[in-house]
Amino acid sequence: NAGVMQNPRHLVRRRGQEARLRCSPMKGHSHVYWYRQLPEEGLKFMVYLQKENIIDESGMPKERFSAEFPKEGPSILRIQQVVRGDSAAYFCASSLKGDEQYFGPGTRLTVT
Amino acid sequence: GNSVTQMEGPVTLSEEAFLTINCTYTATGYPSLFWYVQYPGEGLQLLLKATKADDKGSNKGFEATYRKETTSFHLEKGSVQVSDSAVYFCALLGPSNKLVFGAGTILRVKS
Description:
The complex is a heterodimer.
Chain A (H helix, E strand, L loop, with lengths): L4 E3 L2 E4 L5 E6 L6 E7 L5 E8 L2 E4 L8 E4 L6 E5 L8 E8 L6 E2 L3 E5 L1
Chain B lengths: L2 E4 L4 E4 L4 E3 L1 E4 L6 E6 L5 E7 L5 E4 L2 E4 L9 E3 L8 E8 L5 E3 L3 E6 L1
Parallel strand pairs in B: 2-12
Antiparallel strand pairs in B: 1-4, 3-9, 5-6, 5-10, 7-8, 8-9, 10-11, 10-12
């Protein structure tokens, strides 16, 4: 049973570009979560999605960030017009029923 | 609101020493509690969990007991190995299935 997959593992963007991070949940899991780990900080919740629905986006910055989990395909976290402060590790997790969450390897975003 | 406090690291131990990493929480009600481990350059792996008071989670020699009276979920291992060197995160499951994490504790085990 494949685990949570994320790609790319490393992403370098210049200031002002767009970053797209993808997450494929574990087979059979319909709950997806995104967390961000900033340097020297812990992990912070960003958004919780189920298929085609955003359940809770209270941790998402109000501007430039968006997330989706379409009926077909992976979940996407999109960051428009990236700034240096967006440099972080972004982790996706999935769960079967909203209990135990299993994490992917993360995407490490560097903004130059 | 919900929060998790972990002991600050790094914790440096010799191989075969006893490990305790303290974790306390603040929450409404009795949330499920978790320990995750993160090895360098990797994602988080679920280490163990407990869903109600007095439950003991255990895995790979690690244990933690859900203590309602002291709002604690301390991680213990009787004999650590070099391969246990990692960052350990305590977390609670809050409303809307959000995991709330502690700051993480770096563990370094020397041979």
